[in-house]
TrEMBL record:
SMART domains assigned: AAA
Coiled coil: none
Pfam families: ABC_tran
Protein name: ABC transporter ATP-binding protein
Gene3D superfamilies: P-loop containing nucleotide triphosphate hydrolases (3.40.50.300)
Superkingdom, taxonomy of origin: Bacteria
GO molecular function annotation: ATP binding; ATP hydrolysis activity
Limits of the ABC transporter domain: 23-247
Length: 321
């Protein structure tokens, strides 16, 4: 992708065989009649990560998930799931997709829905699917059309988990769950990832959920990838800087660094930067939280992109595939 920002060199991940990447995109783009929903998107998502997919409304998150889930076809570029082209039928048993609308047959009962899951999926884990449904006190003989929004979501989760996928693609999965169900589902997701090595790619606007759960991030804005990498390399690549403003503006010396966002309040400026060397001793510095980094990038969608470590397929030493 046309990255003008700097890249942080890899510290942990090797180039790895193609299967090491749950997803690998190269120059991926999707154009609808109104224009490009996603463009020039290149990244790798290492297997086993819980990845938050973040971006403003209309950024291209659902489009990316749909391309990975065979719900849409790419206009340009390539996307692979565990080294298999994402549009290939061989990729089908390896992922489960929970879209925003979570379509289920309204006339089916919950039991019939789970039975359908068993018949369609060779690796079906009926005990797990039923456990998830029962934990929400949902009667197995209830028709899907009579369930509340949150109950409907729980059954959709049960279907997705029951499939025992290697990659879970979730589009704002928690949106209509109550706080207890949210907590339970996020616990399930984390258990899946740690116990089975399941990779999760999950879009959400709830930054606190992402901060609690995710160890990896993809940030998109205006159809372009803005951030990709492990939280513990992406977040420390940024610094919060506070100091005295000069003539009501952030000091010119700040321009030596990659400035994501600046604000002036009274006599002081506050900035989030990616330091390109030593920061002035005149300024106070602090490590930002993940939420602070994400909010700054959401407010500044045109900030230079950053892909850390093995996330960047075009970085030196990462171009094995
Ligand atoms: N089927 C479609 N036909 C035409 N345009 C579409 C279609 N689906 C998405 N788009 C457009 O593509 C762009 C990206 O949409 P997408 O749904 O991927 O965004 P998003 O990041 O998931 O947004 P949100 O956070 O609001 O769910 C938007 O401008 C949207 O209007």
């Amino acid at each position: 992708m046309g990255i003008e920002g700097k890249r942080v060199s890899d510290t942990e991940l090797p180039g790895g065989p193609p299967g090491a990447w749950a997803l690998e995109a190269r120059g991926l783009g999707k154009r609808y009649r109104r224009g490009w929903a996603l463009r020039d998107c290149s990244f790798r998502l290492p297997a086993g990560r819980i990845c938050g997919l973040v971006g403003p409304n209309g950024a291209g998150k659902t489009t990316l998930l749909k391309l990975a889930a065979q719900q849409a076809t790419a206009t340009e570029g390539r996307l692979a799931t565990f080294g298999v082209p994402a549009a290939d039928s061989a990729a089908l048993p390896r992922f489960a997709y929970l879209g925003q609308d979570k379509p289920l047959f309204k006339r089916f009962t919950v039991a019939e829905t789970l039975r359908m899951g068993r018949e369609l999926n060779p690796r079906w884990d009926g005990a797990e699917a039923e456990r998830i449904v029962r934990a929400g006190d949902i009667p197995l003989d209830a028709r899907i059309g009579t369930l509340s929004g949150g109950q409907h979501t729980r059954v959709a989760f049960a279907l997705a988990f029951g499939k025992r996928p290697e990659l879970l693609l979730l589009d704002e999965p928690m949106a209509d769950l109550d706080p207890v169900a949210r907590d339970e589902m996020s616990g399930l997701l984390m258990a899946e990832a740690t116990e089975r090595g399941t990779t999760v790619l999950m879009s959400s606007h709830v930054l606190t959920d992402l901060e609690d759960m995710c160890d990896h991030l993809l940030v998109v804005a205006r159809g372009r990838l803005r951030l990709a990498g492990d939280v513990d390399t992406l977040v420390p690549a940024h610094t919060l800087v506070t100091g005295l403003a000069e003539d009501g503006r952030a000091p010119a010396a700040l321009d030596a660094h990659t400035v994501i966002e600046t604000r002036v309040q009274g006599r002081q400026f506050h900035a989030l930067v990616r330091p390109a060397g030593e920061l002035s001793d005149d300024w106070e510095t602090a490590e930002p939280s993940m939420e602070e980094v994400l909010l700054a990038h959401l407010r500044a969608p045109d900030a230079p992109a950053l892909l850390t470590g093995a996330s960047d397929p075009d970085a030196e030493g990462n171009s094995a595939a």
